[in-house]
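Q: Predict the assembly, please.
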Amino acid sequence: MPNTNNAGLAVKRVRIWYGLMILVLVIFSVRLFYVQVIEHGHYQAAALSDQLKQYQIPATRGIIEADDDGADVPIVLNQQLYTLYADPTLIKSANQTAAKVASIIGGQASTYAAQMQTKDTRYVILAKQLSATQQAKLLALKYPGLGTQAQDYRVYPQGDLASQVLGFVDNDGAGEYGIEQALNKQLAGTPGQVKAVTDVNGVPLAATKGNIETSPTNGDNIVTTLNLPIQAQMEQILAKDYQSTKSQGLSAIIMDPNTGQIKAMANYPTYDPSNYQSVTNPSLFQNAAVTNAIEPGSTMKIMTTAAALNQGVIQPNTTFYDPAHWVVDGFNITDIEEDGGPREQSIASILNLSLNTGATWMLMQMGGGQINTKARDAWYDYMTKHFRLGQPTGIEQGYEAVSPVTPPQDNGAGIDLTYANMSFGQAVQMTALQEAAADASIINGGTYYQPTLVNQIIKADGQTTTNQPKVVEKNVVSSKVSQDMIPLMEYVVQQHLLSGFSYMNFPSNYMVGGKTGTAQIAQPGGGYYSDKYNGTYVGFVGGDKPQYLIVVFNIEPGVPGYAGTYGGQPVFADLAHMLINNSYVTPKTSP
Amino acid sequence: MTYSSSLALNRSRFQVRNQNSVRFRTPARRLGPISNTITLIVLACLLGLLYLTQVTKTNAYGYQINSLQQQQASLTSQHDNLEVDSARLQSLSRVQGSAVAKNLVPVAPSGTVQN
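A: Predicted assembly structure:
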């Protein structure tokens, strides 16, 4: 019997323990269910916030190249440079550390030492844009409190060449001004993305499901239409002529009138894009040839003449009696004294002597002999639809200026006078580029090509797209009018040579034509300054046909004489000689 | 077949029937609950170990990938540096300022052409 009692007790104990274990298991199961199922989202988020890393892989920005007599040469590249920083709380001996740093990267050791002793901060930048070699030497020091950070920079192997055309990339990686701004999206590419569970070192765990890694698509490389040697020589000429003409600002464009391609475009003064942060005058960032619209003065007479010829209201050999002044809306329109007073004049003389009365007379011919609605409508149509003034050219540049053309409707504010002024380049504004594009269409047979700076776009995978000349407008003027305009402009150059401008002497196996412009500068409150002028020049150089169109805008040249003749013309001559002397122009096949 | 051999054969046919034999049934071997549990735990551990081995091995590739990516970035950086150096050495200003260029004699008769 005692055996039976003991066995029963043992069974009872086992059952109690069994019951307790079951109870514990039930509690665990309930808790596990609560944690794993009910609070699943909360704990998953908490775990992922610690383990899941998400960051962008930056795309490499496309480089920019220029043409160097058939070869593409980089003018903007990328380079990884380093920023040196210090944590003052960890620097042990500031003087000793600073001396060693200065021996590697240059600069004043005392300045570095002072920076290293800055209080209340743990991050002081000591130097930027250090090379990889310098960075390696600095890290080899193993000084506590010194560190480097890698950063991508744009570098300019040709220095400040074409800086205002190129623009720069700011600290946020965005293109500013010039091509960098206009083509920012293409140059920047698309960054990649990593979203992955990582280990403690931040290395993605390959075995984890759901890791996302998309590779970046690097930016497109841009091959510009700029001709490197022409661009470089033009910039040298502008720097020289800026001084010699005592200019306030000089812009020039060399364009292929038969394609719209810009071969060179520059302004002076300029800036160094690798050190853009130190520029104190932000207007230097602007490519004034594209962003600065001014009244061009008498170079506008090229358009007026072409418009009148194309309408058939004048012929190249037409003569007329010039009274030397017209009264329009109660104001006198006169010529300069050197033009010789009332007499018979020709179309060629209008251009050569730059007769304002002649330009006004041509406008009158558009209206059947007087400035009226018909004349204004016709001239407005030519300015805005044929020559596309008052609208952007669409060139790949940031901040292209647009200055609307006054509509022809009578506004009660002397619209006839305004239109008369427009016929000789006042009361209408345009950029050097807009004038270049319009005048190119006059000398190339009558086709308005969209001016462009982009020759090729090379994608990251090597796929190359070559830009074809884009025809914006055909029959701007007839091919006959275009052929008539060329000798008229050549006549101007020949006459200026005969007038004593020896530098306008060009070899006979080249065709060179042009037109000066001297424009009064408008005052902000209305009216014009009586003593401030801009000088402009539009000309071409070629052999059997015009091969280069040159436009010069000289802002307030300080030399005596007419701004166009003494501020614009010499710059044109220098550029034209440069093109001829360097054999960029194919001479006439039969001189 | 002889008569005697025929009798012997007939006898041998009934030999098994007349044997006095006892047949014992062999009991089936079965594991007890503890053995079963241990076996299952060991199997689970083996599977877990196998899984861990594979996961660790796969994750090690992550380090290899990371290392190769760093190597690629370093080489790209070196390539960029060399490209920049090359472009700088060929820049117009550097060529123009070189000793060779300074010793060149201009051949373009620019004075004659202009005048």
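Chain A touches chain B through 33 residues (CB under 8 Å). The longest strand of chain A covers residues 71-86.
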